[in-house]
C-alpha cells in the first residue's frame, strides 16, 4: 500500500496511509476540539442564564449601559472576517498563493479592528465606573448590575483571548502560505484554522444579543 | 539493556538518549512516560493517605493540627483524583494499547499526545509547588464560597495546576476519538474492536464533554478569588450552589472516566483467562456508551442536601438508579463469559475477581446513596468515603494493576514472577476490604468525614481501617519489587504469553516502533477463542 502513491512525503506524516486520511483526521480533531470549546463557554452561558433569570431588571438595566453602536460595528467586522477567512480557505484549495496571503492578512486586520473597538469599549467602561470592584458606580441595583458586568468582562474577555490566539494562528499560516507550503493538494491547516475562526465568530454572534440587545425595546436611552 | 539478545529492533531499543524519550512522538514511549509520572503521583497520594490514617488511629487529633489535616486530605484527594485515578488507565494503558489494538501505527496526533504528557506533568508539578508553599484546605471539591472568598490557602494556584492538567485530559480524549474513528486497520470494523477500545471511546467522550466545564468553573473560582467577581458569592448576588452544579456536571462523569477504562480492561482479561468470547459483546460495548451518557445526567445526586427542590431530587435519584442497569449488564456478561469457561487463576485474573467483588460492593452502596432518604442520613459521613473508595479505588486501581500485569510482558518483553504477583493481588484485596469496609459501618453509625478527631466509640473501626491501610501499602509495594526485577532478570516474553486474542498479541513483545512489521488486516470477530 505504501510507497506506490505520489503523495509528497514532506506533508504526509508517517502514521497515515494517505493525505485523505490525514485531512479527515485533522478535520475531525478540530471539530471535537470545537465541541470542547462549546462546553467551555457553556459554563459561562449557564451562569449568565441563571443570573439573568434571577435578576431580570438589574440585568436589563445594566445591559443598557453597553454601547450598541460599537457592539454592532464589531459584529459586522467579525462577520466580514469570517467572509475573508472563507475566501482564504477557498484560495488555498485553488492553490492561489497570492489571494491566500491577501485574505489571511485581511482576516487578521479585521480581527485586530475588532480587538481595537473592544478595547475602546473597555476603556469607556473603566471611565464610567462600570468595572466590578471597589470603584463600581451604578444608579439602581448596583450589586446585581455588578454581577452582570462581571459576566460581561469574563465572557467578552475570554472571547477576546480566543481572537488573539486566532490572530496568532493566522500569522503563522500567512508565513507558511507566503512560502508556498499550501497547495491545492495539501491545505489542511488553513481549513481547520478556518473552522476555529468561524467558531470564535459564532460565539460572538451569541454574546452580542445576550449582552447588548435583550430588553433593548423598552430602553430609556 | 542487552541488545545482542534482542531478535529485532523495537520501540525500547529505538534510541537510548534522554532526548529520544523526552521528545518522542511514539505513543508507546509516551505511555511509559505516563507510567513513570502516574506512579510518582500515586506514591505521593498514598503518602498523604498514610498520614491521614495514622492521625485517625486515635480519637484525639494528636498527630497533626486540624489545619494541617485539612490540607492533607485535600492534597490526597487532588493528587489521587486528578493526577492518578483519572489519567492512570487511559494515559498509560490506553496510550500504549489503543493504536495497537485497532492496527494503527500511532495515535492520530502524536505531537499533541506528547504535549498532553507535558501538560499533565507540568500541571502536577505546579500543584505540588502550591502544596509545598502552603497547601489547600478546601477539600478536593473546592466548594464555594469557602474556596472563593474565605480560604487563606493556595486555592488559585492549585486551580491553575488542575486547569493545565485538564487540557491534558481533553487532548488525550480528542486524540483517542479521532484515532478510533479514522485510523482503524482494514477489516477492523466498529464491532470487531476490542471492548477495551470501546471503553476508551466512551471515556474519551466524557473527557471532551466534561473537562471543559470544570475548566471554566475553576477559572471562575480563580477569577472570583483574584477579582472578587461575585459569581459564587451570596453577598454580591451570586449563588454558591451554581458552583456545585457546574462542578458535579464534570466530577460525577469523572467517576466514569475512572471506572469505564477499568471495565474495558476487565472485559479483555475475563475473555483471555476464560478462553471464551465475551458474552453479549454488543451489549457490553453499548453499555459503555450508556454509562457515559447517564453519567452526565446524575450530577444532582450530590446536592440532595444543598437546597435542591424535592422534584429535582426525585429526578436525579431516578436517573442515578438507572446507571445500575448498564453497570449490571457488564457484571452479568462477565459472569456469563466465565460460565463453563476454562478459567485460569493467573495474577491478572485474580485482580479481575477482586475488581468484580469490590465493584459490586461499591455499586450496590451507590444505590443506597441514590435513594434520597438514605443519602440524607449518610451525607458527609464515612459511608460515602467508603463507597467512592470502593468504586474509584477498588475499580480503577484493581484493573490498573490487573491490566499492567496482563500487558507487562507485551510492554517490556519480560515475564515477571507469577507467584509473587498472585500474593500481591490477594494482599491488595484483603488490605483493601479491611481498610474500607469498616468505614461503611462507622459512617453509618455517624462518623463525619473530614474531621481529624472523633468520639472514642468510633475508635475500633478506625483501628481496623488503619491496619487495613498498612496491609494495602504492603500489597501495593510488592509489584514495585517483582516488576522491576523482571525488567533486569525476567525471562524473555513470547509474543503471546497468555494465548490471548487481539492484534496486540500478534505483534512482537515489545512491539516494533511502528507497532507491526507488516500492516495488519483483520478477518475475524473479536475474542475468537472458539476455533
Descriptive report:
The complex is a heterodimer of chains A (221) and B (531). By secondary structure, chain A is mainly α. Chain A is 75% helix and 0% strand. Chain A has helices spanning 19-54, 56-63, 68-94, 97-127, 142-178, 188-213. The radius of gyration of chain A is 21 Å and the shape is elongated. The N and C termini of chain A lie far apart (69 Å). With 531 residues, chain B is mostly helical. Chain B has 16 helices and 2 strands. In chain B, strands 1-2 form a two-stranded antiparallel ribbon. Chain B is globular, with a radius of gyration of 23 Å. The relative contact order of chain B is 0.11. Mean pLDDT of chain B is 94; it is low at 1-6. Chain A binds chain B through residues 1, 13-16, 21, 24-25, 28-29, 32-33, 35-37, 39-44, 46-47, 50-51, 54-55, 132-133, 143-144, 146-147, 150-151, 154, and chain B through 104-110, 170, 173-175, 177-179, 181-183, 208-213, 215-217, 220, 223, 227-231, 236-239, 242, 245-246, 514, 519.
By DSSP, the count of extended strands of chain B is 2
Based on helices, strands and strand pairing, what is the structural class of chain A? mainly alpha
Low-confidence segments of chain A, given as residue ranges, are: 1-7
- Seen as an oligomer or otherwise, the chain set is heterodimer
**What is the arithmetic mean of pLDDT of chain B?**
94
Structural class of chain B: mainly alpha
Give the number of DSSP strands of chain A. Answer: 0
| Shape, principal axes of CA atoms of chain B | globular
Q: How far do the termini of chain A sit from each other? A: 69 Å
Task: Catalogue the unreliable spans of chain B.
Answer: 1-6
Taken from the alpha-carbon principal axes, the silhouette of chain A is: elongated
On the 0 to 100 scale, the average pLDDT of chain A is 91
What is the radius of gyration of chain A computed over CA atoms, rounded to a whole number of angstroms?
21 Å
Helix run count of chain A = 6
Distance between the termini of chain B: 38 Å
Amino acid at each position: 500500500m505504501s510507497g506506490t502513491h505520489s503523495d509528497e512525503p514532506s506533508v504526509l506524516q508517517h502514521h497515515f496511509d494517505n493525505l485523505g486520511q490525514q485531512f479527515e483526521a485533522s478535520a475531525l480533531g478540530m471539530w471535537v476540539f470545537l465541541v470542547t470549546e462549546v462546553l467551555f463557554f457553556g459554563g459561562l452561558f449557564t451562569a449568565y442564564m441563571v443570573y439573568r433569570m434571577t435578576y431580570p431588571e438589574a440585568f436589563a438595566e445594566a445591559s443598557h449601559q453597553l454601547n450598541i453602536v460599537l457592539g454592532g460595528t464589531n459584529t459586522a467586522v467579525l462577520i466580514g472576517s469570517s467572509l475573508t477567512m472563507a475566501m482564504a480557505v477557498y484560495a488555498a484549495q485553488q492553490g492561489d498563493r497570492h489571494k491566500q496571503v491577501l485574505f489571511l492578512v485581511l482576516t487578521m486586520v479585521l480581527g485586530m479592528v475588532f480587538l481595537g473597538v473592544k478595547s475602546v469599549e473597555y476603556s469607556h467602561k473603566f471611565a464610567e465606573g462600570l468595572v466590578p470592584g471597589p470603584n463600581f458606580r451604578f444608579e439602581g441595583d448596583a450589586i446585581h448590575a455588578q454581577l452582570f458586568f462581571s459576566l460581561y468582562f469574563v465572557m467578552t474577555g475570554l472571547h477576546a483571548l480566543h481572537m488573539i490566539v486566532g490572530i496568532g494562528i493566522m500569522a503563522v499560516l500567512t508565513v507558511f502560505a507566503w512560502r508556498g507550503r499550501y497547495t491545492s493538494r495539501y491545505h489542511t491547516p488553513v481549513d481547520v484554522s478556518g473552522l476555529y475562526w468561524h467558531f470564535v465568530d459564532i460565539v460572538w454572534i451569541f454574546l452580542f444579543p445576550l449582552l447588548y440587545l435583550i430588553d433593548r425595546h423598552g430602553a430609556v436611552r | 539493556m542487552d541488545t545482542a539478545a534482542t531478535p529485532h529492533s523495537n520501540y525500547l531499543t529505538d534510541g537510548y538518549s534522554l532526548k529520544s524519550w523526552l521528545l518522542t512522538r511514539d505513543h508507546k514511549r509516551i505511555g511509559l512516560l505516563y507510567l513513570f509520572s502516574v506512579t510518582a503521583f500515586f506514591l505521593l497520594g498514598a503518602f498523604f493517605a498514610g498520614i491521614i490514617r495514622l492521625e485517625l488511629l486515635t480519637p484525639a487529633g494528636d498527630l497533626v493540627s486540624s489545619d494541617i489535616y485539612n490540607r492533607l486530605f485535600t492534597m490526597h484527594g487532588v493528587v489521587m483524583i486528578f493526577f492518578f485515578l483519572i489519567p492512570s488507565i487511559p494515559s498509560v494503558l490506553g496510550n500504549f494499547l489503543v493504536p495497537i489494538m485497532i492496527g494503527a501505527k500511532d495515535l492520530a496526533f502524536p505531537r499533541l499526545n506528547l504535549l498532553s504528557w507535558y501538560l499533565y506533568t507540568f500541571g502536577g508539578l505546579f500543584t505540588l509547588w502550591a502544596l509545598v508553599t502552603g497547601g489547600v484546605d478546601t477539600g478536593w471539591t473546592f466548594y464555594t464560597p469557602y474556596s472563593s472568598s474565605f480560604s487563606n490557602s493556595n486555592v488559585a494556584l492549585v486551580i491553575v495546576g488542575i486547569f493545565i492538567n485538564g487540557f491534558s485530559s481533553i487532548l488525550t480524549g480528542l486524540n483517542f476519538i479521532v484515532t478510533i474513528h479514522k485510523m482503524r486497520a482494514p477489516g477492523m470494523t466498529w464491532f470487531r474492536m476490542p471492548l477495551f477500545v470501546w471503553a476508551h471511546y466512551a471515556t474519551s467522550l466524557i473527557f471532551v464533554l466534561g473537562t471543559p466545564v470544570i475548566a471554566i468553573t475553576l477559572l471562575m473560582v480563580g477569577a472570583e478569588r483574584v477579582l472578587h467577581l461575585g459569581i459564587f458569592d451570596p453577598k454580591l448576588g451570586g449563588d454558591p450552589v451554581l458552583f456545585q452544579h457546574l462542578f458535579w456536571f464534570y466530577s460525577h462523569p469523572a467517576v466514569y472516566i475512572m471506572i469505564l477504562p477499568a471495565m474495558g480492561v476487565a472485559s479483555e482479561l475475563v475473555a483471555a483467562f476464560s478462553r471464551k468470547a465475551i458474552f453479549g459483546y454488543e451489549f457490553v460495548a453499548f453499555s459503555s456508551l450508556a454509562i457515559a451518557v447517564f453519567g452526565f445526567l446524575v450530577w444532582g445526586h450530590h446536592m440532595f442536601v444543598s437546597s435542591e427542590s424535592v422534584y429535582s431530587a426525585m429526578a436525579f435519584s431516578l436517573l442515578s438508579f438507572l446507571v445500575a442497569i448498564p453497570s449490571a449488564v457488564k457484571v452479568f456478561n462477565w459472569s456469563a463469559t466465565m460460565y463453563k469457561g476454562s478459567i485460569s487463576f493467573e495474577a491478572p485474573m485474580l485482580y479481575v475477581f477482586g475488581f468484580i467483588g469490590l465493584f459490586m460492593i461499591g455499586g450496590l452502596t451507590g444505590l443506597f446513596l441514590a435513594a434520597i432518604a438514605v443519602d440524607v442520613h449518610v451525607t458527609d459521613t464515612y459511608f460515602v468515603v467508603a463507597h467512592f473508595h470502593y468504586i474509584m479505588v477498588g475499580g480503577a486501581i484493581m484493573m490498573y494493576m490487573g491490566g499492567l500485569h496482563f500487558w507487562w510482558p507485551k510492554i517490556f518483553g519480560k515475564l515477571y514472577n507469577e507467584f509473587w504477583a498472585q500474593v500481591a493481588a490477594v494482599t491488595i484485596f484483603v488490605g483493601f476490604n479491611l481498610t474500607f469496609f469498616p468505614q461503611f459501618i462507622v459512617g453509618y453509625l455517624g462518623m463525619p468525614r473530614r474531621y481529624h478527631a472523633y468520639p472514642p466509640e468510633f475508635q475500633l473501626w478506625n483501628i481496623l481501617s488503619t491496619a487495613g491501610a498498612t496491609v494495602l501499602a504492603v500489597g501495593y509495594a510488592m509489584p514495585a519489587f517483582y516488576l522491576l526485577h523482571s525488567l533486569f532478570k525476567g525471562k524473555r516474553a513470547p509474543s503471546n504469553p497468555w494465548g490471548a486474542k487481539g492484534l496486540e498479541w500478534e505483534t512482537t513483545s515489545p512491539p516494533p516502533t511502528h507497532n507491526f512489521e507488516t500492516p495488519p488486516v483483520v478477518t475475524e470477530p473479536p475474542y475468537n477463542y472458539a476455533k
